[in-house]
Amino acid sequence: MKLITDNYLKAVITITLLLSSIYLYSQGDGPRAHLQSPIGVWAINPKYLHLDQNLLPNGNILVKNANINVDVFPTTLVHTFSIKGKFARVFGMINPGSLTATGNFEANSIQTSKELSASGFSDGFIAFEYGLIGSPGLNAFEFAEHKPQFNLNGFFRYWYSGTYDSNKLINLGTNRSTFEFGTTMTIPFHKDLSQNATWLEIMPTVQFYTDNNNPARSSTANKVAQKPLFIVENHLTHNLNKKLWIGADLRYQLGGETSADGVSDDNQINILGGGLNVGYQIIPPLSAFMGYDTILLGDNDAQSNMLRVSLVFAYINLKKINTK
């Protein structure tokens, strides 16, 4: 009985330290989004993001000569489980919000300067992650005894369009689908869970886009296409104690140039972004996170500043786990 009680307490402590790590959004998944966790976890992650940039809200279309302010409240639901002994995770996200934009926009092939606004939903997604190397599917008690190790997971995400009105010059949604393929890697720099954890996360992905066959920006264009976008996201985080952690980000993007009826918009994305983060475990099932990211280097006068505030409510039913 004492062994079961000790295992139970250790599992609770382990989950408290690790289940604060689900921060997903199109501007970057954020630190600790893809750390391994026990199977059987349910979590909900409401966030607030304020973006000041010349990119559309989804973060992968550059609009020259524009200043776009976005306030969105993406909410992600996450569940972990096991497939043939390997860790697996599913995500789903909805993304309500609003934007205002000023600058030069094209309408009927004429450049016009005005202030625009839109509200509704930005693009959301469903996603699946599966363990390839390392990444065993462990229950909470097994996970509490498991030494940190390198993990490599396969990752797929489908982005669906948010709110879109072709009569408007700018929208929260993109009126197209996005297919994202990649891997997630986590590298520990600590030997066991009793130490203050230090993690390096690396996530290279590529996004492929369907065409927008009902462009909103010009009545003369029949189709807007976009080239694939390569993204590599990196996060280094460190636990200062059992409740407080800090982190630094680097995120590189290349590609994503759009064209209208085959005519290039000359808006390729080639940017390096970075930021700082801090997270705190308020109580075992509730954690908070705040981060600031900006573009450090970029072509085509790309600009983006992002403030992100996030909460994670996580739950796992320890009583249903077989401790034998």
> Count of helices?
2
- Unreliable stretches (pLDDT < 50, length at least 5) are 1-6
CATH topology tier name: Lipocalin
Tell me the CATH superfamily.
Answer: Autotransporter beta-domain
**What is the terminal separation in angstroms?**
11 Å
Overall outline: elongated
Alpha-carbon Rg, integer: 21 Å
CATH architecture: Beta Barrel
- Quaternary organisation: single chain
Arithmetic mean pLDDT: 87
**Main sheet makeup:** 12 strands, antiparallel, barrel
The first-level CATH class name: Mainly Beta
Strand content: over 45%
Q: Can you write the helix and strand succession as a string?
A: HEEEEEEEHEEEEEEEEEEE
Number of domains: 1
Q: How does the helix and strand content classify structurally? A: mainly beta
As laid out across the biggest beta sheet, the strand order is 1-3-4-7-8-9-10-12-13-16-17-18
Query: Roughly how much helix do the residues carry, as a percent range?
Result: under 10%
Give a count of the beta strands, DSSP E runs of length 2 or more. Answer: 18
Pfam family, one: Phenol_MetA_deg
Describe this protein's structure.
InterPro entries: FApF (IPR025737). A 12-stranded antiparallel beta barrel has the order 1-3-4-7-8-9-10-12-13-16-17-18. It has a 3-stranded antiparallel sheet with strand order 11-14-15, with no helix packed on it. A hairpin with a 2-residue loop joins strand 3 (75-83) and strand 4 (86-94). Mean pLDDT is 87; it is low at 1-6. The protein has helices spanning 2-18, 140-145, and strands at residues 42-53, 66-72, 75-83, 86-94, 96-107, 110-121, 124-133, 151-160, 178-188, 198-209, 224-226, 229-239, 244-255, 258-260, 263-264, 269-283, 286-298, 304-315. It has a single domain (2-320), classed as Autotransporter beta-domain (Lipocalin, Beta Barrel). With 324 residues, it is mainly beta. It is elongated.
